[in-house]
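Translate sequence into structure tokens.
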Amino acid sequence: MKIGLHCPEVPGHLNPMTTLGCELQRRGHEVTFLGCQMAESIVQRSGLPFYAFGPDDPLNERLEQSFRELGKTSGIQGMMMTGKIFGIQAKLVRKYIDEAFNIIPFDGLVIDQVAPAAAIQAEAASIPYAVACNALAVYWDPYMPPPPLPWDYRTDFYGRARNEIAKHLVLWAYRLFAAEKQVGVDPLKLIRDNDQALIHLAQQPAFFEYPRTKYPERLHYTGPWHRSARDDTSIEFPWDWLDGRPLIYASMGTLQNAVSHVFRNIIDAVRDLPMQVVLSKGGGQVDVAGPIPENVLLVEKAPQLRLLEKAKLVITHAGMNTALECLSHGVPMLCLPVTNDQPGVAKRAEYLGNGRVIPVRKVTTQRLRTELDRMLQEDSFQQKADEFAENLASYDGLEMAAKLIEEAMDSQTTILNPQHVQRNKKS
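Result follows.
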């Protein structure tokens, strides 16, 4: 089959989507990534063919500039900038994706949940598609706090009312800043269950979710879409610096990591620990002033998967990919979520017992040190992390996702999750 892929042009979405694409390619399918120009380098590293949307269109430069601005934001401001980015992406997709459809006779598409413009065009062209949740799978439910908010999971009246009010405020704000009226795309189309997708797939495993009042019947939880070979072996790293002391790996991601004060707080919190710490800037716009202690190695980029194999604990922004990689490697997480779905990911880790959360605006050296001491001294965090790693080692989420896509595309019929159907019947 000829299969097209499309997702936002950021590593947190591109890495799992291209890994899924490579698995489909390995299974004999012709896979092409469709995207804006800034995605090209990451897609080419994966070995997949790349089709660029209007490479000479000035909107591409506006998109890259907006992502640079996003790296300096957090919280509601970050969500507003994300909405602006959505509007630019949607314009590029609607202008150029039909050209790709005319050139390549696709049998089906795999479209990111937060890229609904491609789904609208696919429906207009009668091309079947699957939805891929590369980030946190978002389907509104009274029990679920909106992902941008670092709230605890609550099922009582207060929790449900709070969630419902916040949901409408978040929806209103996001749709406003996403310039929906200008681009003609509902940014929540693939969240609101009014799409024509044959199947929805999440790389988030089923256990990494709260109990719900209703389960989306087309949604299939698989497991992480990563392979160890994805780790960039071209990244130089001084492996001889590691001297056998326990290792903490710290990263605030590759997108919204321009929070220099947080990096300084991390350094000051770990300076007296009998451990080594690798702190990655993620290639971001980070300026860390002041001395670096001997037990901290500050690097521009890091071979994350290989370091997770050695780490005792991870300090993370709680992006979905890093969270899933920590789950797979059995590493507890101290989460410092910034914006978008990161607070929701972080609170799930805390709810499950293998992580703790400090919202990024509340990060201080003392609070970091208190949480680090707790997580390093209490065995329960490592026990939970080991339990989840053992669970994920028992099956191949990437292979499962590829098989489900094949089944949907071959049959051209909706693929329901029988467990979700059964749960809904009992509720």
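Note: The two ends are 39 Å apart (CA to CA).
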